[in-house]
Write a sequence for this structure.
């Protein structure tokens, strides 16, 4: 065998390996979603029967029943609102903190970085009760904004640390060059730093969104009328039949998927290789 | 008109003093090189002139304006950074146009200037590319074009060639010198590379430990170092230094030979001579050869004279080997003397 054929052979093998790995990773994500979809779109009998059809009967009964179920639409709206607010608040507060940490020297910088993380050291159940009492006193209980505040405290440490490393990854000379070319500090930030960190900011925003979207405990404790979808489902569907649970699961997954799909270009974007 | 005056400027970082009370005047359209080893304060001084660093004391004047309280954008300067700082999210065209757009220049004028500067730097075929698609040398050209497009009074360059490979550096050196001479700007150029400094500068400011040791033309810095440090830093190989003791007024003994030295000098001084200002001779400084390095056009001899290290550059057709005894006659008019106490020239 000549070296050339050995080389192509090796290349072929490594390509198969790559493909196999890719397939497995895709399956890891897609199979559960697929099962969720199949069961949601099947009739009640099909859900509990065996073997299952690969292609569901496209029975919309479950999903329609679920969507018309009292309060689902409202809870879905609440979830989107809370997650959206959490996203805006945690980036709005976290990104400036990350920028300050990466660009300025100030007293207590090290302590600040540790303290940011320590907020995650307290388990939420421990905080939930005093929080509930405080929220009732201030009138924030059972509001979307109140819950968003709690979720923001959960997401904020990550937002600060992710944006800190994002800003640190951008050479200060780029900013300085912009200053010498006629920019104020703010203009340099908007014209040079923002475009460069946007993909990372988007990723960290998605992260905040997902943290809030998936959070159950605080949502269940702190809201009564204005429940988010997770809190609503955990209470209403606990006693529901299996096919309705599947429908609920799918409804939980889909908005997050759509959201990530919408901002995917920022997740993949890399300057110079263009956004493919 | 952009004469630069630095008056009594100092900079402290906490308890560390990076610059001790610097005074320097740079003439309009002069090419001034700040030369020194890393950590000597040359970049700090440049950044103070640029407005990227605030001085702890003193004044900076550009033209007839005092600028040390102004932000960089109001100083009429442009800067080229060591790592180029080409904006990665903009095309080469937009990079060069960046400052012009900030100045709200109209589209036609922007295009005209960008094209002219791109042509000057030979990057007109790269205008649509992003910095990720450029080589180091091309990025360097973009950075210089971006600075030139501003048509600034002053161009500040912070080791602009140090990230390029040797051949490219030599090419760019000559090219930059020509372009900057044509552009009629005052240039301050920071480097640790003495060849760059010698070949490009109108004047060199040699810096050492936060002070300017000598500010003079390249040839003067080379021939008449104001301090021992300058002689030992500039020149490759650097100056030779030998201990000398006073015999009588104006006569000094160096390695058992006598030379005419400074009148009314101290008892002990240092004798200095450049390695290329030596000739093998019958009677001179007696040296024992330790290492012979043929360098092509000449050869470098590392020797010992009276127990002190000594280097000589001699013609390559003379044959020497380790252990030889040679006598070197220094060219009388090239001998320099330094005070070992103050390290200043005598």
């Amino acid at each position: 065998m000549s070296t050339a054929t050995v080389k192509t052979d090796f290349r072929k093998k490594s390509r198969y390996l790559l493909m196999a790995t890719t397939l497995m990773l895709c399956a890891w994500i897609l199979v559960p979603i697929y099962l969720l979809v199949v069961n949601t779109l099947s009739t009640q009998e099909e859900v509990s029967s065996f073997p299952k059809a690969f292609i569901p009967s496209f029975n919309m009964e479950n999903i329609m029943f679920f969507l018309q179920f009292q309060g689902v639409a409202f809870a879905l709206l609440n979830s989107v609102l809370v997650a959206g607010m959490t996203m805006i608040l945690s980036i709005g507060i976290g990104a400036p903190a990350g920028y300050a940490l990466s660009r300025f020297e100030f007293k207590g910088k090290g302590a600040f970085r540790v303290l940011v993380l320590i907020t995650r050291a307290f388990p939420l159940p421990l905080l939930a009760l005093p929080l509930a009492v405080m929220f009732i006193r201030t009138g924030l209980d059972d509001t979307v904004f109140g819950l968003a505040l709690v979720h923001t405290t959960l997401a904020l440490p990550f937002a600060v640390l992710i944006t800190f490393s994002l800003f640190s990854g951008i050479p200060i000379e780029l900013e300085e060059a912009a200053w010498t070319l006629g920019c104020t500090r703010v203009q340099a930030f908007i014209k040079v730093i923002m475009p460069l960190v946007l993909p990372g900011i988007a990723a960290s925003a998605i992260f905040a969104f997902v943290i809030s979207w998936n959070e159950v405990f605080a949502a269940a404790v702190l809201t009564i009328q204005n429940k988010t979808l997770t809190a609503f489902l955990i209470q209403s569907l606990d006693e529901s039949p299996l096919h309705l649970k599947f429908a609920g699961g799918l409804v939980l997954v889909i908005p997050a998927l759509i959201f990530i799909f919408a901002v995917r270009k920022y997740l993949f974007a890399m300057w110079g290789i263009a956004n493919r | 008109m952009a004469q630069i005056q630095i008056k009594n400027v100092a900079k402290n970082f906490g308890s560390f003093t990076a610059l001790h009370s610097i005074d320097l005047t740079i003439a309009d359209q002069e090419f001034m090189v700040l030369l020194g080893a890393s950590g000597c304060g040359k970049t700090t001084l440049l950044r103070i002139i640029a407005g990227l660093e605030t001085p702890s004391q003193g004044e900076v004047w550009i033209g007839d304006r005092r600028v040390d309280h102004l932000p960089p954008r109001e100083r009429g300067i442009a800067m080229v950074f060591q790592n180029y700082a080409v904006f990665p999210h903009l095309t080469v065209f937009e990079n060069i146009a960046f400052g012009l757009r900030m100045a709200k220049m109209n589209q036609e004028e922007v295009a005209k200037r960008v094209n002219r500067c791109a042509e000057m730097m030979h990057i007109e075929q790269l205008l649509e590319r992003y910095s990720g698609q450029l080589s180091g040398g091309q990025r360097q050209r973009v950075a210089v074009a971006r600075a030139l497009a501003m048509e600034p009074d002053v161009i500040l360059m912070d080791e602009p060639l140090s990230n390029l490979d040797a051949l490219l550096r030599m090419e760019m050196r000559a090219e930059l010198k020509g372009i900057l001479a044509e552009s009629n700007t005052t240039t301050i150029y920071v480097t640790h590379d003495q060849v760059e400094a010698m070949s490009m500068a109108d004047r060199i400011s040699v810096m050492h430990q936060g002070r300017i040791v000598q500010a003079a033309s390249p040839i003067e810095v080379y021939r008449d170092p104001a301090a021992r440090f300058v002689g030992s830093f500039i020149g490759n190989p650097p100056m030779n230094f030998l201990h000398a003791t006073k015999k009588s007024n104006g006569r000094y003994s160096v390695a058992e030979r006598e030379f005419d030295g400074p009148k009314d000098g101290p008892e002990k001084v240092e004798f200095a001579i450049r390695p290329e200002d030596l000739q093998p001779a019958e009677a001179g400084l007696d040296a024992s050869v330790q290492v012979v390095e043929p360098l092509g056009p000449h050869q470098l001899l590392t020797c010992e004279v009276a127990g002190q290290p000594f280097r000589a550059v001699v013609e390559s057709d003379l044959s020497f080997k380790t252990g030889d005894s040679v006598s070197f006659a220094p060219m009388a008019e090239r001998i320099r003397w330094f005070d070992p106490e103050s390290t200043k020239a005598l």
